[in-house]
Each structure stands twice: as C-alpha cells, then as structure tokens.
Amino acid sequence: MIGFAALVDALVYTRSRNEKLRLIARYLQATPDPDRGWALAALTEGLSFSAVKGGTIRTLMAERVDPVLWALSRDFVGDTAETASLLWPQPETDAMPPPSVSEAVDLLSRMTRMTVMSELPRLLDRLDADGRYALIKLATGAMRVGVSARLAKTAFALAFAVDVEQVEEYWHALEPPYRELFAWAAEGAEPPDTSERPLFRPFMLAHALEDEVLDLADYVAEWKWDGVRVQAVHARGESRLYSRTGDDVTGAFPEVADALEIPAVLDGELLVRGNHQGGESGGAASFNALQQRLGRKTVPKAMLAEYPAFVRLYDVLILDGEDLRELPWEVRRARLEALMPRLPSDRFDLSPVIEADNFEHLAELRAGARDAAIEGLMLKRRDSPYVAGRKTGLWYKWKRDPLLVDCVLMYAQRGSGKRSSFYSDYTFGCWNGDPDEGAELLPVGKAYFGFTDEELRQLDRYVRNHTVNRFGPVRETDRSLVFEVAFDSVHASKRHKSGLAMRFPRISRIRWDKPAHEADRIETLRALIRD
Amino acid sequence: MAAPFSWIRPEPHGIHVVPADCWIDPSQPVANALVTHGHADHARGGHGRTMATAETLAIMELRYQTREGALPVAYGETIALPGGVKATFVPAGHVLGSAQIVLEHAGERVVVTGDYKRRPDPTCPPFECVPCDVLVTEATFGLPVFCHPPVEREIGKLLKARADHPDRCVLVGAYALGKAQRLIAELRRAGHDDPIWLHGAMERMCGLYEEFGVTLGDLRPVGDATKDELRGAIVICPPSALNDRWSRRLPDPIAAMASGWMCVRQRARQRMVELPLVISDHADWGELTATIEEVNPAESWITHGREEALLRWCQLHQRRARALALVGYGDEDD
User: Fold this and answer.
1) Per-residue pLDDT tens for A255-301?
2) With contacts defined as CB-CB under 8 Å, which chain B residues touch A85?
3) Contacts of A87 in chain B (CB under 8 A)
4) Which residue among A77, A430, B13, B123 is the one 20 to 30 A from A42 at the CA level?
5) Is A224 a catalytic residue?
6) Per the residue annotation, which of A224, A391, A399, A494 is the catalytic one?
C-alpha cells in the first residue's frame, strides 16, 4: 500500500503524460502479483466494495472528530477522502504494519455493513496520511488521478515491451488482478484465450486526408457520421457495446446491445434517431441529441423512448466465430451486407457506400452535404485488412470544411506542463447585439490550439500587456483582439450564458488587424445551428 | 480598578497598548510601533519610532530603505514604555529576528506571539514559553488537518527528486524572507554542499542573514548561469516566479514549493506544483493547541488565520477565548 500511495500521489502532481506513463510502468515492473493487478484495476475502472461508501467514511469521522472542526476542515480541503486521511487520529498503541494492496483489497471485500465500522478503522490505523488517502480513494472507487484506461494500457505495454493493441484485446478478457495478463507480458506465458467472450477488439482508425487526391478505383467512399464510434459484440449469449477507448458503454445503450443476438463483432457509429434538416425522416439526429444519452450508467425509460439509439454499421470483424480481419475490405463489406437481414432493422442499419464518378464529384458531394449527422467523408482502400490503430494509406477521413466565425478574446488561462508559463487557453465571445449601442460580449467557446509556438509567444505577451483583471490563473483581457475561430458545428446549450456550444473550436487565424467591434454577433452563430 | 486587560485593545489595524500609546504590528503608520518580525504584513514602514530586534530592524531597513526612529531591543531585554508598561522581546522561532512581545502592566501579563513555530530552525533561536494571563496567538494553520511532517523528510524528498532527474533542475518556490534561508540551511545540514542558485529577489535577504551569522554556503545568482550549469541543480525563487516567464531560462524545471499549505493536494495542484514540500515556519494545529495548554493563559485571543477552528477547540476544552478581527495579516508569509 505504501508504494501504491506514493504512485497515487505522484500521479496527482504530475501533468506530463510521458511522466505519468513512466511512473505507472515503473510501478508495474517493481511490484509483485497480485498487488500490481489490483493497483491497475483501482487506477482504471475502479474497484467497488459493497460495504464501503462515501457515507461510511463520513460516519466514521463523525465518531472521531467534532462536527464543527470536521465541517471547517472539509470546507478548506475540498475533498472528503483527503480530509479524513489528514484528520484520522494516530493510534496510541503500535498498529500492525501497513497492508499490501492485495491484503487491503481482501479485507475490504470481506467487510459487511455489520463489520465495516470496526474493521475499516483497524485498516486505517495501519497507514500514514498518504496511505489512508490512497486506501479511502481505492475503497470508495474514485481515484481521479488523470489516468484513463488507454493511458494505463499504454504504460503496461511500455513496462513489458509488448504491443498495446494486444494488451487492449487481452485486457478485456480478464478480471482484476489480471494474473494471466502479467504472466503473458512479464513472463512470456501463452496469451489468454479471447474467442469465447464478448470482448473489445481494438478499432481501425483513419488518417486525416490532407491535400492528396485518391483514385476511386482503389478507394471507396462512405459518409463519416457524427455520432460515437462503437463496437457491438456478442458471444455466448452476452452482448456488449464498447466505445473507441474500449470503455464498456452497454449500460447507457441497453436497447442496442440487447438487439445483437448473433455471435459477431461489428464496427459502426452509434446515433440517435430524430428529425433533422435535409435528411430522411426517422434518420440520425445531430450529435447534440446523442449527448443526452452519453455518460450514463443506466437509462430512464422515458429517455429510451425520446432518444432511441441505433448503430449504423461500417464493418464486420468477426462473424459466427470466424475472424474476418485479415480479409480485404470488399470481402468484409459483402459479408456485412449479407448479414443485415439477420439484424433487427430498428437497431442496426448499413452505412451506405457513396456513388461518385471521380474524386472531383466526391468533393462536390462533400461540399453539398447538409445533413447535421454528417461530419464528412471516409475513404477506405478496397483491399484494406482491418488492422488496429492508424496505418498509413489504408483509411482516410475527410472532414467537412469547418465553419468560421470572428470572436473577441475575453479571458486567458495558463496552460499546463511545458505551457505552464504561457497564457495558452483562450475564452472568446461574440456580441449580443450592436457593439456601438452598448452590446456585450458573451463567451461562446474556449480553445487552446490552432496556433504556432511563435504565435503562442505573441499571444502570451499580448495577454500580459492587456490584462484588466486577474482571477488566480486566469486573466481577463481588455477585449481588443479578434480570433477567427474554426469549429465543426454549433449547438444550442442551456449550460452556457450565450445559449450556444461549439464542437471542436480552434484558433484558425489571429486577426491582429481587425477591430473588436467588427467581430461577429451571437445571432450569426445561432443561425449556424443545425439541430 | 480598571477592568482586566482594559489597557490593551485589539483594533482592526493592530493591537493598541493604551497607556503607552504603542501599537503592535500596526498596519498603518503610527507614532510608536512594536514589531514582532520582518514580514511585510507585520512590519510596515512610516512609523515615528519602531521598537524591534536588531535583525528585524535590519530587515525593515533593507525593505524600506530607512532606519529613522529605529530602536533595537535584544532578546530577553525589558524596556520601560510610558504609562507604566514594560515590554520584553522573547524568541518566537519564526524567522530571523522574530519575537514574541511580553507586555506587563498593573500586575497583568499579556504575551503577543506574533507568528511562531515550535520546530528547531537553524536560522533563528527557538520559541520560548512565557506564562501569562492573556495569550494573543496566531492561527495561520489553525485547522486540525495541518500536521507538518519532520523537515528532514521533506528535504529528503527534494534531494531525491534532484538525484532522480540529473537533466532537469528543481525549482523551489519559497518566500524570500525566512523560508528560503531555512530551506538552504536545512539543505546544508543534510550535507548538500553544491552551489544553490538564487532568483534575484532572494540575494539581498540571504546576504543579510549571513551578516547576522547564519551561514548559507555557496549561493549563486541564476542570472550568471548557463542552462547546462543548472542541470541537476537546486534553484530557489519567490513563489510568484515559479511558473512565470522567468523560469523559461531553466532546464525543464521540476516545480517545487516549500510551504505549510502544501499538505493539501488541491492547494499544490492549483499552483501547478509537481513536488510539494510541506515546510512551514508556523505552528501546526498540534503545536498551536499544545502551546495554549503549556502557557495555560486565563484567556486566549486568536488573531490572523483560521480563528474559528481554534476558537472551537478552546470551547471544547473549556478555555476562555475570543477571536480578534485584525485586518491585513497573512498576506506574505507561508
């Protein structure tokens, strides 16, 4: 637990991704089984213990600390686990030595609601403040140390010099503490068998098309739908839905997962049915509609009815026990088309192939696409196998040209890591009326990329010389600089005062030349809403 | 007979010793000031007469470029003030020159601690406990979550970070008066004899410490160094320079900060600190409460900091206490 607590603390304070990778890799190399497996599980998906909840900690503290002193402390520290770890009274007699991670996990999992109030204190007594913090975070299932599952898998691959895509595939076959995964990676044992389980298989990804012109004899075009890329998997009576990062999102879209009843691994775009401009009725709604359903562990019935989800299929990886990934795209496509009648049509449809005479014709189709659910085009080599990750020359994405709007810089915040001395995160706004008649700027978005290092230095200088107010790491500027902001789409949003939310905003140009009062108005932006 | 302690009055801008017409740590210019220590929130310029230790007066002179009206008082020395008030300066263990002020009048004794700590500090004499009727105590770290670890552990963390990253430098944010010099002295005590590099704002204060006999070893200005010279080095700067443009000249610095606040993770993260060092020049919660018990005053007056929690503790322990509403303290140190 001491090594784990040190790792947790180091991750709390480290902002650099590479440094985080190194920290986790070093821990995994140096720590024996099964501790490292439990630690990995705690960092990524989080462990859950039925008897230990946030409320358990508060009750324990209420028995030991005056309520006024607790409230003042909790208020200052801002985190229950940390406050408890600092306020926990040191035991007067020598406690047992600190537990290992696996001993702690074992003890926690055996606690019941009857025993937790006497057992948990004994465990806390064996640790110092940092150890108690790590234990409480581990026990209540909320580490929040900025480690995504992908980052942990990358660190794992780094630690044992194995392929991250293989880690991805085997990982999902196993339960914590992942003994077989470590046996394979660290000791060269046989990889775990993954064929009979509803597992995640790593996605094939695309490069952005820059200035290339592709020959449509070699490449086929499909729409790039603006939803969430998912993988639908069924094996042995169990269905799962995975996001691009390999996270299990079955709980948020049960109607889709339940509808897949044949053993298969399918790749497609998760969308919500809805009316939209210019498209077929009952087709896909914009991303904004889908957002209502994202990030939920369970879905209320009303939401299932209001925002019914379906998957628009791109590809088939595995079918009836046969791995098709080595086959050319054209063959897989034929298998996918033949498969469609076996799938319920309200939950699965086929992403159509776009008929175009030549590349110029395709460019026209792309420019003319007005459907809110279309993000652009995909171009796939007709003979491409399905390979994990991004491989040059096989798949390309060709996004629709971004929308542009002129905004005024309002606030700047310092970045992190190498950018921590630069004001590099910009909040910008548009006018809510005629600026000459007293209109105000309302924030419409935030961006922290789209400029060169040299431009960043210029912007940093600009912010420092035009500051009118400071709030911690944030500076308010005198609202004199105009950014041309590029973005993929804009949606109505109740969360923002302007009533708008941009997708993928980035700084397209810095308009040093343009006076602020000539920047765009909110209504210009509102007219671009397409849902 | 007057009401007990009516001769000493806490006012928003300082503690007024009425019969002597003296103020302790006044935040506005007054005719007669008694100053506990040199931090800017306690020692301001512009007073007619300033009574303080020679060290504190030297610090004030360095900062305000004037010695006018300075009256040095040695530790242990008792001076007679007008109106039958006696004042004695006693070590507070906070920074060089820091003193508690013991006031006696009409058979009553009041001790004003100023800022203090109970841990040993190689740069100043240790806190002395003075029995009294009223203890006017600080409460900067007046919450039970504050439990400062041994300084050796934190110095160990700093030296380990340096050893682990020979291509980078460790940049430690530390207040220019007190914390910086204590940090250097503790590094020397731990056997670190290499040059320590200083931000320009640190140099004069370190020089002043040396003049008062605190040896700090090989100190060099960062301005003179090349990037390569600073690889594997320890650099000390004021906290405000930690993530500012100034630090761009350093080789991929690890941002560290030496402060009592660093024991709270969010505080460290807000300042974008990668290596928090919990080193404080104030008493932590255990020391604040233990000091009240040890001094055992009839009444405790709690000043700048988190008065509420310490007040609550006094209540729970059946001790008479009140919170003073003094303004403008706690801006500079820790």
Assistant:
1) 999 999 999 999 999 998 876 433 455 677 767 677 778 777 788 88
2) none
3) 144-145
4) A77
5) yes
6) A224
